[in-house]
Amino acid sequence: MNTNILRPSTLNYQRFKTIGNTIGHTPIHEFPSLSPRPGVRIFGKLEWYQFGGSVKARAAYNMIRYAITTGRLISGQRLLDASSGNTGIAYASICSVLGIPLTLCLPENASSQRIQILQGLGTELILTSRLEGTDGAQRVAADMASTSPGTYYYADQYNNSRNWKAHFYGTSREVYNQTGGQITHFVAGLGTTGTFTGTSRGLKCLNPKIETISLQPDAPMHGLEGWKHLETARVPGIYDSNLADDTLQVNSGEVFDLIRFIAKHEGLILSPSAAANLLGAHIIASKNRRATIVTLLADNGDKYSEILTQII
Ligand SMILES: Cc1ncc(COP(=O)(O)O)c(C=O)c1O
Asked: Residue 94's closest CA among 26, 18, 168?
């Protein structure tokens, strides 16, 4: 028997369960100001209403739960991953409650707000080349995991099926139920691709007629934190390109215009990637006579003041 396995008693299992209750079940918000005609409705799930403040709480919690309950993450090991920020913050929030030490590789040009939050939550940060983005952070994390396997449990969110499964079992059912089964289109951008892959797969199981549309920035340098430009980046192992009925490109300038519009008409300051998802939903709306379109708003603008002061 492996006595190093993290046991519920060591972990304060009650806290673990309590955090679980704060994951998912986010409110859905309608954006009538973006609808081109009465038969077309656009909804966004407000994903910052959960522990850690972003959509990534879902995947981070599911990956940590799997690592602990299967005995893969053992006592004394550090959780290790690469992140552009939000998964890191979600891991850090959960790990600090559970007393699990965390090491994160993230690009050195991550915003100072993100770095401050992560350091405040007690995370060890390995800053990687800005030129290589999250691909470089992934390479460094994989090297550290293979060099010191006893020290680290490498969660590897880009290749970990528990990432997309969090959305398959959680997000897709929430979206379906919150629209009373009326959803016709699901739209989402691609980072690790967990959100798009898991939610689309889940929705197509619930109703194969639901169309799922993936979004991409229209250029490699895009400023949409959390998104990858897949043509020029390393494609995550969990990505399934067959799930997309269509792929749309969005322009960062138009995303920034939409942030201003939403602030003025809907009372929300969105993050760039949340606004990019809404822009994608708006493009789909303009092509349909009747539709119920849903997207996810990964986080709000709280962590993006460096970018938002230039936009708003
Ligand atoms: C702000 C933001 N938006 C979108 C995404 C993309 O989500 P996913 O990794 O599930 O593709 C992320 C991922 O980290 C993110 O941080």
From this structure: 18
- For residue 271, pLDDT over 70 is answered with yes
Nearest CA to ligand 1 atom 12: 226
CATH topology of domain 56-154: Rossmann fold (3.40.50)
Band (pLDDT 50/70/90 cuts) for residue 46 is very high
User: At 272, which helix (H) or strand (E)?
Assistant: helix 272-286
Question: Model confidence over 213-266: pLDDT tens digits?
Answer: 999 999 888 889 889 899 998 999 999 999 999 999 999 999 999 999 999 999
Residue 6 has pLDDT above 70, yes or no: no
Question: Rounded to the nearest whole angstrom, what is the distance from the C-alpha of residue 147 to the centroid of ligand 1?
Answer: 28
- The domain limits of the chain are 10-50+170-311, 56-154
Give the right CATH number for 10-50+170-311 from 3.40.50.450, 3.40.50.1100, 1.20.58.480, 3.30.300.70.
3.40.50.1100
Q: Which atom of ligand 1 is least distant from the CA of 85? A: 16
How many A from CA of 224 to the centre of ligand 1?
A: 10
Candidates 229, 207, 253, 189; CA nearest to 55 is 189
For CA atoms 311, 228, 81, 52, the dihedral sign is positive
242 DSSP assignment: G
Ligand 1 cavity residues, CB under 6 Å: 56, 84, 86-87, 189-196, 225-227, 271, 273, 298-299
